[in-house]
Amino acid sequence: MVRQRFIFCGIAAAFILTGVAQAQGQETQVSGLRASIDTPDPLADGDQADEEAVPPPIAARPTTLEAGLAVEPPPPPPRRRRREDDPYAALGLDVGGLTVFPVLRAGIIVSDNPASASTDRKGDIGARLRPSLRIASDWVRHELTVDGSGDFVFYDDQTENDSKAADIRARLRLDVLRSTTLALDVGYVLTQENGSDSEVPDTAIGNRTDQSFSQNVALTRRAGRFAATLRAGSVWRYFGDVDLAGGGKETNGDREYVEPQAAVRVSYEASPALKPYVEVGYAPRIHFEDRDRNGLNRNSDGYRIEAGVAFEPSPLWSGELGVDYMLRDYADPALSSIDIFGLTGRVAWRPSELTTVDLSLSTDLNETSSADSSGSRVYGARIGIAHDLRDHITLSGSAGVDYEDYQGSDETELTVRSNAGVLWRLNRWIAWTLDYDFIYNDSSLPESDDYENRLTAGIELRG
User: Is residue 45 in some structural domain?
Assistant: First the structure.
């Protein structure tokens, strides 16, 4: 209780400060729509467009980077252009060739089902903190980018359902030669699963905390219209233990593994707007324990092939779409091989400077601790939209679906996540925020379906 009251008092103080900042920013606030992408540049002579980088949201589920082969990173999210005299544009902090964009969202969250219970649903209120950080270099050669974000919820009564998530990624690109680049990537992802997930016992108290660490190096060589990329790295996966109702604990050390990775991609520039590619990869999984809780050896060999195209036919469209096939062959003869075929990639549509639409698709093979199954096939899709209603008002919405099918059994899981939000900027540094989230889990197991409604109101502080 002391911890929650301290957080609530801090947030209340921040709300009071926003009133002062709003009064000071009244003279600089302007309203009105920004011009569309087809409208002539409204800047005065000598002015130039500036860009504001917006950190990406946390992925709802592990991405291919931590759960499978490292692949060519998707195209970066589009950056909204803002005038240098825009009173709402984040300026960032200049740190010796690097520009730092820190953001902190703090607010009050109300949930009608923090435990994701299918029966006996109970609501609660709490505090929610969502820090994020983007660092971009301003170098003539080479490039460094760092993106990090977190989501931490602290409930008043049901403290066992407090949740946390984090995603941090850094990339250093070195221009070795005119036609050769070297890229170094590192990443850290923290996620949590509760009793609504079939891999977590129904009697679990609170959440299971999972972590992954990834690192890889990629060397790209261009020769005429052809480009080849050689990539190598590894992913380390760790699964937390879970306390059980009535005493006891589920230990998950037998699920932890390291996944070395190697991949080769060849692409061809058919035109400046179209680049077909083919990529093949190999990723074995080596568990830290020889046998799992069922006495099975879950070490495996993973193979992957993807064919697709990267495109940017106009400033309105860009992205990368591919067809992906993955196969995992297990060392234990009691475990059957599992494969998956599906779509992967991301598409960004910018119909105007006011509106951005993002679509992402994913395909993956996940591990399982079930004695009856080798693993699960996961298909994911997400669409998000952001629209600037005014220079200082941004509306956003998203919807995502994950479908998981367990090999060797009839068990399936469907997870739907949707969000709607409003961001009302008072000035460059402070904004009001309002978010609504809906989460629905549908399982083929009896009495395992659940849903949750969340409402978060707070403020955003930017550097």
Answer: no
